[in-house]
Amino acid sequence: MLNQLFGSRSAELIFYYMLVYNKGYARKVSSTFNLSLNAVQKQFLKFETAGIFVSFLEGRTRLFQWNPRYPFLKELKGLIQKAYDYLPESEKEKYFMTRTRPRRTAKPL
Amino acid sequence: MKKISKSTSLKDLAMIVCTCLKQDQIDAVLTGGAVVSIYSENKYQSDDLDFITFASKKEISNSLDRIGFKETKGRYYIHSESDFIVEFPSGPLSIGNKPVKKFNEIILKECYLKLLTPTHCVMDRLAAYYFWNDMQSLDQAILVSKHHEIDLDEIETWSIDEDMLKRFVNFKLKLNS
Predict the structure, then answer these.
(1) Which ipTM value was assigned to this complex?
(2) A72: nearest CA in chain B?
(3) Range of B47's domain?
(4) Last residue of a domain, one of B98, B115, B132
């Protein structure tokens, strides 16, 4: 949908991921969408250079999140949200329904 | 124009770089910690110079090459005679989500520097305090505010727009203490 506007499919998918989960790291995104880790890492870095995301090191993992100081954040998220709304439900179920609420340590599954 | 050496101060280096860019018709504005250094007369010491410009990487590189700066793989520029690094973060120049239209200019002999006003420098530092709870940035905002006249009304209006009135009040309390 927006892959041509954003330059690549991985760019588009990263934006959807970040819209839903608000933060992410390359390995998780790459495994979620079955994308090349290298491609995802490069894309995250591009977005960070552009000022769209910022990153923090948590342990050995580089975690990316939206940069609240990005001047076009509201408009960009609006565009991504609209595109996300057009995604088929099957795609949303497949990629964006991961449990994100806490689960107590050692609670049996 | 002064020659760059190990003893070239951050302010002088900023002026040399900005003048060089201006000579090549590149409009660049100094932002970030270097502005705090200049306005606090080095009570806070920054190690890098962040300039915002719309010029292309190629234009910037060609210009800075004239005064001995080389681009590194990390997308910043270094000089063999200086420990400071020069970076060009992505624009646009904005405080919050409003474009910055007013700047300060320093002109000394043949050198020129375009930089954030003291008020916008304070807002830039406060943004880091507001969004990342960065206490160093709060201290820097207070430092600049104590050295220069700032428009507290503008800062308050912006803080309210950013939904950060509580943190602005905290800044004001610390400023007046």
Answers:
(1) 0.75
(2) B97
(3) 10-115
(4) B115
With 0-12 CB in 10 A as exposed, 13-18 as middle and 19+ as buried, what is A97?
Answer: exposed
Amino acid at B56: S
**From CA B28, how far away is CA B93, in angstroms rounded?**
10
User: What is the rounded CA–CA span in Å between residue A20 and residue B23?
Assistant: 47
Instruction: Choose, out of B87, B90, B162, the residue to mutate when testing the contact with A (most A CBs < 10 Å).
Output: B90
Final residue before a domain boundary, out of B88, B115, B142: B115
- Asked if residue B4 is part of any domain, the answer here is no
Among chain B residues, the shortest Cα distance to A45 is held by: B74
Domains contained in chain A, number: 1
Rg (C-alpha) for chain B, rounded Å, is 16
Contact A69 B75 (CB under 8 A): no
pLDDT tens for chain B, 177 residues: list them.
778 999 999 999 999 999 999 999 999 999 999 999 999 988 899 999 999 999 999 999 999 999 999 999 877 999 999 999 999 998 888 887 678 999 999 999 889 999 999 999 999 999 999 999 999 999 999 999 999 999 999 999 999 999 999 999 999 999 999
Residue A25 lies in a domain: yes
In angstroms, the separation between the Cα of residue B96 and the nearest Cα of chain A is: 6
Our count of domains for chain B comes to 2
> A51–B89: do the CB atoms touch at under 8 Å?
yes
User: Do the strands B28-31 and A61-66 form a parallel or antiparallel pair, or are they unpaired?
Assistant: unpaired
The answer to whether residue A100 is domain-embedded is: no
Supply the CATH number for residue B23's domain: 3.30.460.40
A20 touches chain B (CB under 8 A): no
Is the pTM of the predicted complex or chain greater than 0.90? no
